[in-house]
Amino acid sequence: MKTLVALVSGRGSNLQAILDASLPLRVSAVLSNDSQAQALARARAAGIPTAVIDHRNFSERMAFEHRLAEAIDCFAPDFIALAGFMRVLGDAFVQRYAGRMVNIHPSLLPAFPGLHTHRRALEAGVRIHGCTVHFVTPALDMGPIIVQSAVPVLPGDDEASLGARVLVEEHRIYPQALAWLATGRVALHADRVTYPHDRAEPALIAPALDAATPMARAQSGR
Ligand code: GRF
């Protein structure tokens, strides 16, 4: 079975979704830059080895990343999943795991890379928001996209309500993307996402339309 190391910094709800999903891969370790991350407790509760490499103990980013890479390589994972990992990673680190490292981002990339995505989506007045799983490349939040899920921005939404709606989708698409990776149904070649079995996976997962809407009735022919 393929193996995965997850890198986390905080709450760990995406990690939990991955652990709960009975995927065709084994999470062999969870590593964090923050010893207080709730994600570490989730990993321990699931019996998964954890380690903390605190970036504050390193005066240079390169040294931190070198140590992090050593810790990852101890487990020789097939894949690395960033699951709310809040450190920007340098080019050498990213290249080392090219095609094997993925990230979940709470926006429909390439819109709203970086932080505070829900606030920025509300400020921009977009009507559709969502989340993206992508391969990690040196440009922050800009790697080739594996899967996205869209949600509506509803009247009266605030950052919290919109973020919660997006998070539900994150928990659907991250396990799905990892299952595709583990079974070779998506891969990265020359900076493009490919489908080695010649069968494109649905790259957009969106909630179904409300059955009562005229649009849904038209689509179903009723
Ligand atoms: C998620 O919104 C994820 O998209 C972003 O950081 C957040 C992490 O949440 N990269 P959690 O730690 O998985 O609960």
Q: How would you describe what is shown here?
A:
The N and C termini lie far apart (45 Å). The protein has 222 residues and is an alpha/beta fold. The model has no long low-confidence stretch (mean pLDDT 93). It folds into 2 domains: 1-97, Rossmann fold (3-Layer(aba) Sandwich); 103-222, Formyl transferase, N-terminal domain (Rossmann fold, 3-Layer(aba) Sandwich). The protein is built from 7 helices and 10 strands. β2 (25-32), α2 and β3 (50-52) form a beta-alpha-beta unit. It is globular and about 55 Å long. The strands form 2 sheets. Strands 3-2-1-4-5-6-7-10 form an 8-stranded mixed sheet, sandwiched between helices. The protein binds 5-O-phosphono-beta-D-ribofuranosylamine. Residues 10-14, 39, 83-84, 104-106, 170 line the site of 5-O-phosphono-beta-D-ribofuranosylamine.
Can you lay out the helices and strands and say which pair or pack?
Elements: E1 2-8, H1 13-20, E2 25-32, H2 38-45, E3 50-52, H3 61-74, E4 79-82, H4 91-96, E5 101-105, H5 117-124, E6 128-135, E7 145-152, H6 159-182, E8 187-189, E9 192-194, E10 204-205, H7 214-220
Parallel strand pairs: 1-2, 1-4, 2-3, 4-5, 7-10
Antiparallel strand pairs: 5-6, 6-7, 8-9
Helix pairs in contact: 1-6
The structure holds 5-O-phosphono-beta-D-ribofuranosylamine.
The site of 5-O-phosphono-beta-D-ribofuranosylamine has 12 residues, from helix 1 and strand 5.
